[in-house]
Structures are given as C-alpha cells and as structure tokens.
C-alpha cells in the first residue's frame, strides 16, 4: 500500500459548513495556542504540504521550557498573566506570524530533493523489510539516473556513487533489515527572534 500526500482539496472544503472556516486566516500562522495554564505551539510550517505548498526543511520545534508541561497543582498565588505574557505577546502579533508562502507542491518529490534527503536522515522510512528493499532499489535507480544525466555528469563524482554501493550491499547482506535514520540532519535556522 502506498500513501500519497494530498493537500486539503476544494471538493473537501465545499462539503464543509461555513463555521469550519471561521478563523481560517490563522491556519497558517505560527502562534501559541493558549488554554488557561497550557501553551502549545501551532506550527503549520511543519505541514506545509497539507496546505498545498512545498515543504522546506522545517525549523526546530518551538516550545519554551518554562511553560511546557505546566500544571496548576501547588501553584497558588502564581501570577499566570506574567508567566504567560511572552506567549500572549506572540498571540497578539499573530497576523505577522504567517507561514512564508512557497510555490505549490504539484508533483511527487524526488528522492534526491533537499527535503527528501533531510527527511530520510531524520525518519524511519520503512517499517517492512520487503518495502525497504524495493525503496532502496528505487533510490539507487533514481540516483544513478541523475548521475548519468547531463547535470549529474557535471556535478557527481565517484564518491557520490559510494552510498549506492553501500545500499546494494545492505540489500544483499541483511535480508531482514529494517531501516532507521543513521545520522542526524543539520540543525535548522531559527525563523523568529524569540527562538533559541
């Protein structure tokens, strides 16, 4: 079974009640959601394909340590307004915190796109060994196809072929291998001044 990521489509939206669209301008705002003592960040920049846009490598998750996992237990006399003021300030400037628009995502991402290379380093891509082998063979074929293309011939070296050889070795030596991320992706750059 293959999953195809499809953004919210017009045929879905036209079947929804208008009440579902109240506040839709906030759907793509990166803002704290505040409910009494709880604050969680709404981060649509992590799911831009859901809105039909291209997904760049996302920035780190924003969740200030001093307000994460707060409880009211044993906090009598606490000045919640002062504690929550930074989140309230972010909320008050919510219309300035819109996701930066990217071009529409119209086709399947190439396995060699910057985002997919990052994604594969951060994610357990396959959970089934059979699909892992098929996926690895697909990655190898796409990489080799790129390497022999006019652009690939100009930019690729023999060293770029080594990961393909390693993947072929994995397939031949490890029948039951389930792939996991083998290295950390480079850190993202903060989007806003308040991020660490």
**Uncertain segments of ≥5 residues (pLDDT<50)?**
176-181
Radius of gyration: 22 Å
Number of helices: 6
How far apart are the termini? 40 Å
- Main sheet attributes: strand count, strand direction, barrel closure: 2 strands, antiparallel
Helices and strands, in order, run as: HEEHHHHH
Calculate the mean pLDDT score and round it.
75
By secondary-structure content and strand pairing, the structural class works out as: mainly alpha
The proportion of residues in beta strands is 5-15%
Sheet with most strands: strand arrangement: 1-2
Percentage of residues assigned to helices: 25-40%
Beta-strand segment tally: 2
Q: Could you say which overall geometry the principal axes of the C-alpha atoms support?
A: elongated
């Amino acid at each position: 079974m293959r999953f195809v990521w499809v953004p919210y489509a017009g045929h879905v939206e036209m079947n929804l009640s208008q009440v579902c669209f109240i506040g839709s301008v906030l759907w793509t705002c990166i803002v704290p959601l505040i409910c009494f003592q709880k604050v969680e960040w709404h981060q649509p920049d992590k799911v831009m394909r859901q809105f039909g846009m291209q997904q760049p490598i996302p920035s780190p998750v924003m969740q200030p340590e001093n307000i994460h996992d707060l409880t009211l237990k044993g906090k009598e006399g606490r000045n919640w307004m002062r504690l929550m003021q930074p989140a309230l300030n972010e909320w008050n400037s919510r219309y300035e915190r819109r996701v930066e628009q990217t071009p529409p995502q119209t086709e399947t991402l190439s396995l060699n796109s910057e985002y997919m290379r990052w994604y594969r380093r951060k994610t357990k891509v396959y959970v089934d060994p059979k699909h892992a082998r098929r996926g690895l063979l697909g990655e190898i074929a796409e990489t080799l196809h790129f390497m022999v293309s006019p652009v690939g011939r100009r930019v690729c070296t023999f060293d770029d072929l080594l990961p393909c050889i390693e993947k072929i070795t994995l397939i031949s030596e490890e029948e039951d291998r389930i792939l996991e991320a083998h290295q950390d992706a480079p850190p993202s750059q903060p989007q806003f001044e308040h991020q660490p």
